[in-house]
């Protein structure tokens, strides 16, 4: 039983490590490809004075720090699992570190979403965002996922019935 729980923890740890590393990679890239670009003469951000841009930078940095910390904790977990095996409290330490890394990764995801939203808001005018949301809303409201696959079948069935009725006359 203990062997299965260790295997499950190792699989979860591996996938959490991948997620944390991806968040770190994406946030690192976003830090250098700033929304709005750079002023060519000074090398500073074009949108540096906008409040949404400042929120983008802060949330992106928080996300990066949290995800890199989670990656570091996952490396500690690998070290602790090998060196603390068989000692008292090893399982509890491992679980506490795993839970901390998971929490940091989840918060990092949330702050990455905030960075995405504020980055998008920074480069688009609020009017464009509202129009875009209206377009998405109207497209979604016109699509009926429950009926779409069956519309063709009902039309074919109706045509077949009309042909049969015409043959009977």
Written description of the protein model:
- The chain is mainly α and 169 residues long.
- 80% of the residues lie in helices and 0% in strands.
- The protein is built from five helices and no strands.
- The radius of gyration is 26 Å and the shape is flat.
- The model has no long low-confidence stretch (mean pLDDT 79).
Produce a short descriptive summary.
The protein is mostly helical. It is built from 5 helices and no strands. The relative contact order is 0.11.
Our estimate of the beta-strand percent is under 5%
* Secondary structural class: mainly alpha
Task: Please tally the helical runs, counting DSSP H or I stretches of 4 or more residues.
Answer: 5
How many strands appear in the DSSP assignment? 0
What form results from the Cα inertia axes?
Answer: flat
Task: Based on the model shown, name its key terms.
single chain, 169 residues, mainly alpha
SSE layout and pairings?
Blueprint: H1 2-32, H2 51-83, H3 90-123, H4 126-142, H5 148-168
Region (Disordered): 142-169
Subcellular location: Membrane
Organism: Salix brachista
